[in-house]
Amino acid sequence: MEARHSSPGPPEYHASQPKGGNPLTEDVNHQYLFFEAHYVYIVACAFIVWLIVPGVGFLYSGLARRKSALSLLFQSLMILAVITFQWMFWGYSLAYSRSAGPFIGNLEHFGLKNVSIAPSPGSPYIPEILYCYFQLLFCACTVIIVVGGAFERGGILPSLVFSFCWATIVYCPLACWTWNANGWLYNFPSLDFAGGGPVHIASGCSALAYALVLGKRKNTSHPSHTKPHNPTLVFLGTAFIWCGWLGFNGGSTLNASVRSFVVIFNTNAAAAFGVLGWVLVDYIKHNRKFSLVGACEGAIAGLVGITPAAGYVTPWLAGVIGLITGCVCSLMQNVNQWLRIDEGMDVFKLHGIGGMVGSFLTGLFAEKSIAMLDGMTGGSGAVDGNGIQVAKQLAHIAAVSGYSFVLSCVLLGILKYVPGLGLRVSEQAEMVGLDNYEFFDEQIGDWSLAESLQGMAVVKRAGSTVSEIPAERASQGEEGKKGNA
């Protein structure tokens, strides 16, 4: 019988060559020659993850009133730019340095020093520069989600300063806790496949802190002031996010194994079941009526719920997680009223509460047989007889939510009193809208046409037709004149 030839093992990291080799004297690609499928797969996932950036921008823009929609699109792009600088400056080193402590890394890779073609700390199958880029997108997406807590009354420039600082003192430590081999949650261990804690729970709790520190918006008493101005943008943003999350979760295996393909299927299943759960609750609560925005929120809830569990559960359990998360988040519709905080983008409801539900269910449903599909990862939950994992997941939830909320409040409290920064825009700027106040020559839509249409209402009185300004528009005064319908 002909002997089988086994491929060589993955390349090893050597401290004597932190860059992985000298391209001037050797072909540095040879060490990855047998693992091309792995790094090509991760590159493709990274490209897909990037779609989440405009996706969140579209989603937030559609959910906001039109007078502040452009600012949210702008912020999504600007935050990506700021976080790219932060990550290159010291963010990556604080989160993933090889000699990190249990709580935060050091400046070993300050300025991306020695981040090159050596095997990455996350997976020996891919070079560190690719790993660095993939994790950069995680950080950027998280910060963009957080800033949703400030919509319609938070200044753009202060939000960018906050983004840099928040990524440094909140996200990077949490990423180190959860995914760095030296992190305390990594060794606890808690199970968090792709970011239930650092991405979702942290962003939800931090957005809640942002809304709390800024205070409530002005003039939101009328129902039309809290409705999405463009459900089509909400749908488009959700489609981008759903697609991007397939790469977000699918690439988190950091290899092209069978586990990666199970993760992709699980992610899609959870999002689909999240839609079913949310729509079912809406259908019952609202007398057999549907909501497109509700269906979109259900998809996001399902994606949030499956994020920590995607690499640990079977497809049917992934669907169950999506369904439960969608139902729970939909039932939390009035959480802002209960908390008396104006967090109108529902970041805390979808990401904070959804992330907590997903992390808890991971402790229940994780199966080692799924985790081991990549040939190297363990992890099991109550269904495998490891009931203590549920308590560890609860500890994980408490630590991440407490740390992110408290540190965000402290950071925002400091920025609030920085002279000249202006964490919250003036009342006048809020009334006319951030688009009118912050931008010099751009607006969404034809405002003159909108004014003409909104200023005319046909009212039948005694068999005759009379055109008049609606009472709602008249009560808005100058704000109404700026298109705030």
Quick take:
Helix 5 packs antiparallel against helix 6 (196-214) and helix 12 packs antiparallel against helix 14. This protein has a two-stranded antiparallel ribbon with strand order 1-2.
Please specify the SSE layout and strand pairing.
Blueprint: H1 36-49, H2 52-63, H3 69-96, H4 128-146, H5 156-179, H6 196-214, H7 231-250, H8 258-285, H9 292-306, H10 315-331, H11 335-339, H12 347-365, H13 368-371, H14 388-416, H15 427-432, H16 434-438, H17 447-454, E1 457-461, E2 464-468, H18 471-476, H19 478-481
Antiparallel strand pairs: 1-2
Transmembrane segments: 39-60, 72-90, 133-151, 160-181, 193-212, 232-248, 260-281, 290-310, 316-335, 347-366, 394-415
Membrane topology: Multi-pass membrane protein
Protein name: Ammonium transporter
Describe this structure in words.
Keywords: Ammonia transport, Membrane, Transmembrane, Transmembrane helix, Transport. Pfam families: Ammonium_transp. By secondary structure, the protein is mostly helical. It has two domains: 399 residues, Ammonium transporter AmtB like domains (Ammonium transporter fold, Orthogonal Bundle); 38 residues, no CATH class. The chain has 19 helices and two strands. A two-stranded antiparallel sheet has the order 1-2. The chain is globular. It starts with 35 loop residues before the first helix and ends with a helix. The N terminus and C terminus are likely disordered.
